[in-house]
């Protein structure tokens, strides 16, 4: 990552020309990206619309990315690292509104600190969620109040770490008797993988990959 500053001015400049200007339903990324010969997504299953916030915290001199760790007792994705977000409800005006609502409910992050600036490609999960990732800048000074039933922890990871190629690993697990691959970005005692890591790779490909 030589040559990048990972500061606010640089991020804004790159995001202005490289992020999507509006949410798209067309799927650009998925859990099957690393497994062209071992697909797990059932494309005949009903699609469930969801949205997440990709919160870039405007620390100086370098930015960070805010992430959550889900509690261990949840029915799905228990204990996993995730962006704040969830299903788009009927009362949500759009994906942006859903991402902001879910972020507030999960973390307590007030919308007044959040500046949405663009979108990543829609991401389709193995469980048939089509996720719209909303990239936003977050002004420091916020106070968090994580939802104790859903969020075990809220933490930040340096943007430089997540945008560095040496930290983009490919791990695997056995699935239906064969090795199935996924992106992973271990950070200290946090294990960032799966859809979250896939969306981080999308951010990298759009903003920092040459």
Please tell me about this protein's structure:
The protein is an alpha+beta fold and 210 residues long. It has four helices and twelve strands, in the order αβββββαββββαβββα. β11 and β12 (190-193) form a beta hairpin. The radius of gyration is 16 Å and the shape is globular.
Which features does this protein show?
nine-stranded mixed beta sheet; Nucleoside Triphosphate Pyrophosphohydrolase; 20% helix; 4 helices; 210 residues; alpha+beta
Task: Give the topology, please.
Elements: H1 8-18, E1 27-30, E2 48-57, E3 64-70, E4 81-82, E5 85-87, H2 95-107, E6 114-119, E7 122-124, E8 129-138, E9 151-158, H3 159-162, E10 169-175, E11 178-187, E12 190-193, H4 194-207
Parallel strand pairs: 1-7, 2-8
Antiparallel strand pairs: 2-3, 2-5, 3-4, 3-9, 6-8, 7-8, 10-11, 11-12
Summarize the structure.
The protein has helices at about 10-20, 95-105, 160, 195-205, and strands at about 25-30, 50-55, 65-70, 80, 85, 115-120, 120-125, 130-140, 150-160, 170-175, 180-185, 190-195.
Count of DSSP strands: 12
CATH superfamily: Nucleoside Triphosphate Pyrophosphohydrolase
- % residues in beta strands: 35-45%
Helix content: 10-25%
